[in-house]
Fold this sequence. Notes:
By secondary structure, this protein is α+β, with helices and mostly antiparallel strands. Helix content is about 35%, strand content about 15%. The chain has two domains: about 5-50, no CATH class; about 60-135, Alpha-Beta Plaits (2-Layer Sandwich), CATH 3.30.70.
Amino acid sequence: MASLDPTARAIVNGLQGGFPLTPRPFRDAGRALGLTEDELLEGVQDLTTSGALSRFGPLWNAEQVGGGVCLAAIAVPLQRFDEVVEKVNAHAEIAHNYERAHALNMWFVISSDDPRRIEQVIAEIERETGLAVHAMPKTREFFVGFKVEV
């Protein structure tokens, strides 16, 4: 991220935490950043294509629309980490996947429009990897604002 030009930095910093829900959201968001609609669209495309951003889009609260979400973790042998990442991420329900310096070194979020699908995905991942998935369903929700300045 250190190599981002000033426009890319403005896009990353300026679009976190809200996006206009208007007929021309990129025009309106661009205006707030001093960019044209086309400049903003091109900037977002460049950031995702380059890998500086892994994705650009809305974050839905699956539970509020009738779905389910579950944090999960696996203890993955280091020599199998890349292989297991591919198998886990092949599931459309995987929203995030992170490596951690912990005995449970792969953490991911399973999100589905059908809460029953969570257990199915866990079973599929266990079958595909031969590793135990430790499900950590939410028991209480906290809102923590998180914004990354680059």
